[in-house]
Specification:
The complex is a heterodimer of chains A (474) and B (322). Chain A is mainly beta and 474 residues long. Helices cover 12% and strands 46% of the residues of chain A. A 16-stranded antiparallel barrel of chain A has the order 1-3-4-5-6-7-8-9-10-12-13-14-15-16-17-18. In chain B, α2 crosses α5, α3 packs across α4 and α6 packs parallel to α10. Classes of the chains: A mainly beta (474), B alpha/beta (322). At the A-B interface, α1, β7, β8, β9 and β10 of A face α1, α3, α4, α5 and α6 of B.
């Protein structure tokens, strides 16, 4: 017990010393108060005309200290003079593919397809995996508006526009800090899971998304729902996030349900190493259910197998890592960025399948799979404006328990989409930015996403930004 | 064997007691540490650039805990919105930045990600220094073909010490608003600072009298307030347009221009890449003068006073050589 008394004694004595210190302070303050008054009087006498002490031969540069100088109307504090801030991203490509892009697939994986933010962008070739069209093409023009709604809410909308279609990619309101450290987002938004998922395609360091991102998240996994983020008051950056959403997007599906269908949780930790290095590590988890997800496979003879997931629990685990280097923290001349992500997805549930050749109508059976994949990439700016990058992708189709296999009608090797495969891709790119609003990029890939053939892909792209372009996240 | 359960039970009880005792000790010590922290109640300030960190130290003394977000070796336009900066902004009571879009590439992200309502625009904790002074080079129209121009004028306002005097008074009032208990303390410190500062301005202006008319080449138009204050002349910039790095073609064009119409010095700020200034200097014979730009940019520029002492010293050396 003596230790308790000791602790209390220490506590009290420290508080007393504070009190004593406060008393000293108050005497000092009195003294200072007098001095201030004297000085103020002196200053008042000196400067009967304000600023005469500071202005010199140069006429009228500095003005008064009480009011912000209004040089050109009311200054818009954070963006430009537009309210709301408007930003437009233009984006076009030239693509060379050795193999027909209509035969493209990421072998061994169920295509994202369906109604996602992903899949659609690339025109729906290859069942949602499509790499886009051959030759010249204009890609989605991204139009974004953002502004403070009132002192409490910030609003943001980004739409992708292409050939008569307008796709609302994100549209949300956000409150920042009503509860210290808490950010509340509601509407449609890209999930905070992983690293690249929250980035719009124009911010990517390569033309296309990593294969694992495509296979697990369908380009950008977004949802209609609510997101809570909490930034802890710690010297290291520590952020927790929780999302509850409709879950209609791949790997989930529409469910006609009142409650949320998809849950996402994530945590980010970040900091600096010296002046030149900074990093961020993250872990994320997504839990969703598919009831309406459909996809068609074929057997080796070309007979169709229709699959309909009736009740499939899909769980995704991810870790992500980013490291940035810039000499003394100044990236303008040289800098390096490394990023890597790993995802594992387990799916378990019931499947309705219809085999063409059997002609017996839909049957029910199990579906269970465990798949994973990762990518790592490095981008090196070796002189102002010029960067080179290299990326490696590897996926593993993993294990599969599948109705038609378990009932003995077909073997896994005969499946045209879900047979075993380790899709792999190696990519190099070089890009040039004539200013920070422009990027011209040339990229070459050796793509072994298909089962037996290697595709060679050469893509030239430009991405430019007009208007108030928001700052990019780390 | 029969005694074992009892002994285990006793052990558990003992462990519980020890744990409780340790918890109380821990609590008391935490309390002891927390009490003085409450009594001190320091203002936590986030300074975007070193000059504002230095000014906060002048005005806030030991009542303000300053976090300096960037180093003098960093171009303030090009800073990554690093996670560590979000963490620091999260706990800030006050952010002090240049404003006028200087930090547009990173500050908005920090403000959005940190979840700190006290430092949002319009709050007392949001202080943009350039709002308080008259900005130079406010463009009539803004078009990106002109490069990365700031619609509300040139934001590098701190290189005119008369601007700093005005900003200091405004910032001192802001500190007093945030930390009312110490209002008088801040006022006193500002009065003291203003006295020293206006005396220094007089001295600098005397010392720099010979610099009048000095023709300078800079990398970016970040010396315009300095040039304007001391009556110097900014002939041209190494970058062709604001924010656009010089190409070799532009440099050779600049070289012939400078040969035809020489300048007195080529200014290199502490964070500028030395390549282009050195290249031009070697071919034209015009001396390169390395200026600190901000506090800490050179060894001599230890504080705001040192910043201008050293800037003027270095310019005088360059002027004497040409």
């Amino acid at each position: 017990m003596s230790r308790i008394y000791l602790a209390i004694a220490i506590a009290l004595s420290m508080s007393f010393s504070v009190a004593a210190w406060a008393q000293d302070q108050s005497e000092e303050i009195d003294e200072l108060r007098q001095r201030v008054q004297e000085l103020e009087e002196r200053l008042d006498q000196q400067s009967t005309t304000p600023e005469s002490a500071t202005t010199t031969a140069e006429p009228g540069l500095p003005t008064t200290a009480d009011q912000p100088a209004t040089t050109s109307g009311a200054p818009a504090p954070t963006s430009n003079k537009f309210n709301p801030a408007i930003s437009l991203i233009l984006n076009a490509k030239y693509r060379y593919f050795k193999l027909d892009p209509n035969t493209y697939t990421v072998g061994g994986f169920v295509p994202p397809g369906g109604h996602g933010h992903g899949g659609e962008e690339e025109g729906g070739h290859g069942g949602g995996f499509g790499p886009g069209d051959r030759g010249f093409s204009l890609d989605e023009t991204e139009l974004a508006f953002s502004a403070n709604v009132d002192p409490y809410w910030f609003g943001f909308v980004q739409a992708g526009i292409l050939d008569g279609e307008v796709d609302i990619e994100e549209a949300y309101i956000q409150n920042s800090g009503y509860v210290p450290g808490l950010l509340v987002k509601a509407g449609r938004f890209f999930s905070g899971m992983g690293y690249i998922n929250e980035q719009h395609p124009h911010a990517w360091d390569f033309v296309d998304a990593p294969l694992v991102q495509l296979a697990m998240n369908g380009i950008n996994y977004g949802d209609d729902g609510v997101q809570l983020r909490y930034v802890a008051p710690t010297p290291l950056f520590l952020e927790f996030g929780l999302e509850a959403g409709r879950g209609a997007n791949f790997p989930g599906s529409e469910r006609n349900k009142n409650g949320p269908n998809a849950w996402v949780g994530f945590v980010h930790l970040g900091g600096d190493v010296g002046f030149s290095n900074s990093y961020q590590i993250g872990a994320s988890y997504r839990d969703t259910t598919a009831e309406e997800r459909e996809f068609d496979d074929e057997d080796s003879l070309g007979n169709e197998i229709e699959n309909h997931f009736v009740d499939l629990k899909s769980k995704t685990y991810g870790i992500d890592f980013v490291w940035k280097w810039a000499p003394n923290g100044d990236p303008s001349v040289r800098n390096f960025k490394f990023q890597a992500e790993y995802y594992r997805r387990t799916e378990d549930g019931q499947l309705e399948y219809d085999l063409d050749m059997a002609g017996a109508g839909p049957l029910e059976g199990p579906y269970k799979s465990e798949q994973d994949g990762w990518y790592a990439q490095g981008v090196w700016q070796f002189m102002p404006r010029w960067r080179v990058g290299v990326r490696y992708d590897l996926l593993d189709s993993g294990t599969l328990e599948y109705g038609p296999i378990t009932d003995g009608t077909i073997s896994r090797e005969d499946l045209q989409q879900l047979r075993e495969h380790k899709p792999e891709r190696a990519t190099i790119m070089v890009d040039f930015s004539s200013s920070e609003y422009t990027r011209f990029r040339l990229q070459y890939s050796e793509d072994k996403a298909r089962f037996d053939e290697t595709d060679q892909q050469l893509i030239f792209q430009y991405v430019v930004s007009l208007g108030a372009h928001g700052a990019h996240k780390f | 064997m029969s005694a074992t359960p009892e002994r285990t039970h006793q052990n558990v009880m003992l462990n519980m007691e020890t744990l409780m005792r340790q918890l109380i000790v821990f609590f008391c010590i935490t309390l002891a540490c927390a009490l003085p922290a409450v009594a001190h109640g320091k203002v936590r300030a986030f300074a975007c650039e070193p000059e504002w960190a230095a000014l906060l130290e002048e005005l806030g003394g030991n009542q303000v805990k300053v976090y300096q977000a960037t180093s003098p070796k960093q171009d303030p336009h090009r800073v990554e919105a690093r996670p560590s900066l979000i963490a620091r902004m999260r706990v800030a009571d006050l952010i002090v930045c240049s404003g006028s879009d200087l930090e547009i590439g990173w500050l908005p992200v920090l403000l959005q990600s940190a979840g700190n309502r006290d430092v949002q625009p319009g709050q007392p904790g949001y202080f943009m220094a350039s709002d308080y002074v008259r900005r130079l080079e406010v463009p009539d129209r803004v078009d990106r073909s002109m490069g990365d121009v700031h619609p509300s004028g040139n934001p590098h306002v701190h290189l005119d010490p008369r601007n700093l005097a005005i900003i200091a008074t405004a910032l001192s009032k802001r500190l007093a608003e945030i930390d009312r208990e110490n209002a008088e303390f801040y006022q006193t410190r500002n009065v003291t600072f203003q006295e020293r500062w206006s005396a220094s301005i007089e001295r600098w202006e005397r010392e720099a009298i010979d610099l009048k008319g000095l023709r300078l080449v800079t990398y970016h138009r970040d010396a315009i307030y300095l040039v304007n204050w001391l009556g110097m002349e900014l002939t041209t910039t190494i970058e062709p347009k604001p924010g656009i790095p010089p190409s070799t073609r532009h440099l050779s064009k600049l070289l012939s221009e400078l040969k035809a119409e020489p300048a007195d010095a080529i200014v290199r700020m502490a964070f500028n890449d030395p390549k282009a200034p050195t290249w031009l200097s070697e071919r034209t014979g015009i001396p390169v003068v390395e200026l600190p730009y901000t506090v800490g940019g050179t060894k001599q520029a230890k504080d705001l006073f040192g910043l201008f002492d050293d800037t003027i010293d270095r310019l005088k050396v360059a002027a004497g050589r040409s």
